[in-house]
Design goal:
about 260 residues, alpha/beta, 7 strands
C-alpha cells in the first residue's frame, strides 16, 4: 500500500539507533525526506548515512530537552528541505529505579525528557506543521504509561504524563490541522536491553541473550513470548503519519506483543 508519504518531510528525534533509526529507514523507503535528529553528530551521520535513500536524509544535532537547540534544528531542517509535514518524537530512555531509590534530580530529569522532549519539538515545528495539508505527529511512548512498574516508577509516571499531554495537544492543535497520536511500546530489543544483558553476563550470568530475554518476556506477561524488534514498531509509527490515517488523532496504539497486566 502506498502510504502517500513520497516527497513529504518528517522530523525524527532519537534517530541514530533503535526505533528512531528503524523509523527513519522506513520513511526513506517510502520516499519521504527525513530530518534525522540526535545528540551525537558522528554517530548520527554514520547510522543514517548507511541507510538506503540516505541522500534524502538531513542530520542535525539537538538535545530535545533544550528548547533553543530544538528550534535551531527545526529551522536547519526547514532551510534544507523547505517544508515540514510530520514529526516523530522518539528520544527517550528508561530509568531503572524504585520511587524510594530515585533522587529528586532523577525525577526532574525523567519528566524533562519525556514531557519537554516532545513539547519542545512540537511547538518548534508547529507553524510548519500547520502550514502542511497533512501535518501529523507521533509521540513514541510506552505501555508503562498505563501499566506502571515499581522498578520503573519514575519512568512510568513520566510516561503517563506524556500520554495525558498528547491527548491535550491533539485536542488543542486539531483546529490547526495537526494530528497527534501515540505509539506505546512494550519491551523492544534495542541497545538499552543489550547493555543490560552485557551487565548480566559480566556479573556471571550464563544464559544466552535469547534465553535471558525470553525469561524476561515471560515474567512480564508478553503473550508472544519475546521482545519486539525496532522495525516492528516503525510500521505503526509511519502508518499514523500517513495521510491515509487522516481521521486518527488523540489515539494510542500499544505495540507490546500482547502484554497486559490490567483488565
Amino acid at each position: 500500500m502506498d502510504l502517500q508519504l513520497e516527497g513529504r518531510t518528517v522530523l525524527v528525534t532519537g534517530a541514530s539507533s533503535g526505533v528512531g533509526l528503524a523509523t527513519t529507514e522506513l520513511l526513506l523507503a517510502e520516499g519521504a525526506n527525513v530530518i534525522a535528529c540526535a545528540r551525537d553528530q558522528g554517530r548520527l551521520d554514520a547510522a543514517v548515512g548507511a541507510l538506503p535513500g540516505a541522500e534524502r536524509a538531513y542530520a542535525v544535532t539537538a538535545d530535545v530537552t533544550d528548547r533553543t537547540q530544538v528550534e535551531a534544528a527545526v529551522q536547519q531542517g526547514l532551510a534544507h528541505f523547505g517544508s515540514l509535514d510530520a514529526a516523530v518524537c522518539n528520544a527517550g530512555r528508561s530509568l531503572m529505579s524504585t520511587l524510594t531509590d530515585a533522587s529528586d534530580d532523577d525525577i526532574r530529569t525523567e519528566l524533562e525528557l519525556k514531557v519537554f522532549g516532545s513539547w519542545n519539538v512540537i511547538r518548534a515545528a508547529r507553524p510548519a506543521l500547520a502550514a502542511s495539508p497533512v501535518g501529523a505527529v507521533v509521540n513514541v511512548n510506552a505501555i508503562l504509561a498505563r501499566q506502571p512498574e515499581t522498578r520503573l516508577a519514575v519512568t512510568s509516571a513520566a510516561r503517563a504524563a506524556l500520554l495525558n499531554l498528547t491527548r491535550s495537544m491533539a485536542a488543542e492543535l486539531a483546529a490547526e490541522g495537526i494530528r497527534i497520536n501515540s505509539v506505546c511500546l512494550g519491551l523492544i530489543d534495542t541497545g538499552q536491553w543489550r547493555r543490560r544483558y552485557e551487565a548480566y553476563a559480566a556479573g556471571g550470568g550464563t544464559q544466552s541473550y535469547s534465553e535471558w530475554s525470553a525469561e524476561i518476556a515471560a515474567d512480564r506477561g508478553i503473550s508472544l513470548g519475546r521482545f519486539g524488534r525496532a522495525e516492528e514498531v516503525a510500521y505503526p509509527i509511519v502508518s499514523l503519519l500517513s495521510p491515509r490515517a487522516s481521521y486518527l488523532t488523540g489515539a494510542s496504539i500499544d505495540v507490546g506483543g500482547g502484554v497486559t497486566r490490567q483488565p
